[in-house]
Design goal:
- The chain is mainly β.
- The chain folds into two domains: about 80 residues, no CATH class; about 120 residues, no CATH class.
- The protein is about 10% helix and about 40% strand.
- The strands form three sheets. Strands 6, 7, 8, 9, 10, 13, 14 and 15 form an eight-stranded antiparallel beta sheet that branches. Strands 1-5-4-3-2 form a five-stranded antiparallel beta sheet, covered by helices on one side.
- The longest helix has 16 residues.
- It is elongated.
- It starts with a strand and ends in a 7-residue tail after the last strand.
């Protein structure tokens, strides 16, 4: 115990002890927060102060009433402090209004490329412990772009970042492959992640593998209002 405390002794049944509130004062220990009437060793003056009684019967009171008041104020502030906001579990929908937790996470004038010669306000946020980049229209605040290259993302048909997708004519017709910024995109390699975003369609963004040109490597997954694909 700190030197600001002294052992109060006694029992809660004694007239000098008044129960105030039961609360977990120290992590791992259940304690009763009490008011004590205590008297000095060299003086008969009786002072009302604050203290705690632990489950094993230990009782401690503040030496000085002013310190007791300060302790009480700090304790109330801790109890009343707002809880950390729970992390979001679902990805917002493309075209919906950008949620406040997203735009509040933006730093300064952060912008992301969302198509050739276009940049939108954006930020990166954790959703269900996975990192997503979200961009929105500056005027309408509607979401225009969502992207993730988080390796923990696995689509419903088990596509994942780093995987290979066949791009041969037998699998994907040339007219079905679209160029989106630096990536190749095709509806043949699109999927849902229902646990995170319901029926929203995520397109695998591909870089053609130079060693195996028949395949494209998945660099991430995107939704974008600027993406034009042939269905």
């Amino acid at each position: 115990m700190s030197s600001n405390w002294f052992h109060a002794g006694g029992s809660v049944d004694d007239p000098g002890f008044q129960s105030h509130k039961i609360c977990p004062l120290i992590v791992g220990e259940e304690a009763t927060f009490r008011q004590f009437f205590v008297s000095g060793r060299k003086s008969r003056r009786v002072v009302l102060t604050l203290g705690v009684e632990f489950a094993d019967g230990r009782m401690y009171a503040m030496k000085r009433p002013t310190e007791a008041c300060l302790f009480l104020c700090l304790f109330v502030l801790v109890l009343c402090a707002p809880q950390t906001e729970a992390q979001e579990r679902y990805v917002p929908k493309l075209g919906s209004q950008v949620p406040s937790y997203v735009w509040k996470a933006r730093t300064r004038s952060e912008q992301c490329p969302t198509e050739v010669n276009r940049h939108d306000p954006c930020t990166s946020v954790m959703i269900d412990d996975k990192l997503f980049t979200i961009a929105w229209d500056k005027q309408t605040k509607a979401i225009t772009y969502l992207f993730t290259d988080d390796h923990r993302i696995v689509t419903d048909s088990e596509l994942g970042v780093g995987g290979l997708c066949r791009l041969t004519a037998a699998t994907v017709g040339p007219e079905e492959i679209a160029q989106y910024m630096d990536w190749l995109v095709t509806p043949k390699w699109a999927d849902n992640v229902r646990i995170l975003s319901g029926d929203a369609v995520w397109y695998a963004v591909l870089h053609q593998d130079t060693a195996q040109p028949k395949y494209g490597k998945i660099m991430g997954f995107v939704q974008s209002q600027y993406l034009k694909v042939v269905q």
